Amino acid sequence: MGGYGVSLVGHCHPKIVQAIKEQCERLLSCHSSLYNDKRAELIEKLIRILPKGLTRMFLSNSGAEAIECAIKIAVKYTGKNEFISMIRGYHGKTLGALSATWNPKYRDPFKSILVPSFKFTPFGRIDRAEDAVTDKTAAIIIEPIQGEGGVHLPPDDFLKEIRRLCDERGILLIMDEIQTGLGRTGKMWASEHWNVKPDIICISKALASGIPIGVTAAREDIMNSLSIGEHTSTFSGNPIACAAASATIDVILEEKLVERARNIGEYFKRLLLKLQDKHPIIRDVRGLGLMIGLEFRFSIHNILSEALRSGVLLLHSGRNIIRFLPPLVIEKKHLENVVDILDGILRKEERRIKTAR
Fold this sequence. Notes:
Layout: H1 2-5, H2 14-24, H3 37-49, E1 56-60, H4 63-78, E2 82-86, H5 95-99, H6 104-107, E3 118-121, H7 126-132, E4 137-142, H8 158-169, E5 172-176, E6 200-203, E7 214-218, H9 220-223, H10 239-254, H11 257-278, E8 282-288, E9 291-296, H12 301-309, E10 315-316, E11 321-324, H13 332-356
Parallel strand pairs: 2-3, 2-4, 4-5, 5-6
Antiparallel strand pairs: 1-7, 6-7, 8-9, 9-11, 10-11
Helix pairs in contact: 2-10, 3-10, 11-13, 12-13
């Protein structure tokens, strides 16, 4: 489960704990209207790892806040107010982020107050996205791999076609890398698998290893469309969060966790494919790096409960998909143990289904 993808470098990595301790003894709070060395250090490190050209950023406190900022920037820069999001897409539960989120389970209770100018098109269908564009479209917001929606990868040319559409129609491309970024998929940013560069990128989850932080990064001309004071937060660029995030980036780079996610992710996927060969109740195995979905032909409630009793905490996506987001430092023996436990659970589940028939 990895804290829904937060614990990218594991729990309580000593370098990150040390960075937090040192910062706690120095400065706990510093409003973003004032200079802070830890904030500056983090921004410099982010510029080095972000897609080229995304050199201006706003620091916030969560992924949803990063999305909210991106929405406001897009409106201010383009002067337009419509957005295209994806069916099965998930971007958060604050008002703007929820407006960009597809799942009716989250939307319906608050439908009366959601931003009405969001359209949803099928993930992977460029023709439907093209049909949805109007002269009022400010941006397309998309996850390069849909996480909450079930670990769905795009068709090979889809993201490039979205980039082309945005360029041709003067639309901004907002890439939500909150779950997929920082090496999770075997690249620093999942969009790199398809050589697509966004105009705005949103980051959070694993960035500070559990300390709340969010980042919205954009080209300078886009970010500068905001006037001073139009988008602020009391805790923006908190020095403790910045110290933790700066140390997390160091660990990712020093321990070569991006490459590790690619290699050990391929190993884990092979284990799961072998598991699929043994158990026809598994419908699909898909994903990149250490972001993998295991789709079943029925509800996984019993599987999740049995796994928990066996000491394995699993994450679901909907009723029938297990979503694996383990720390990138996980060892092969741990993955093998998880697969062995799942193998035993699935044998029991198959016997139960056969008996019920």
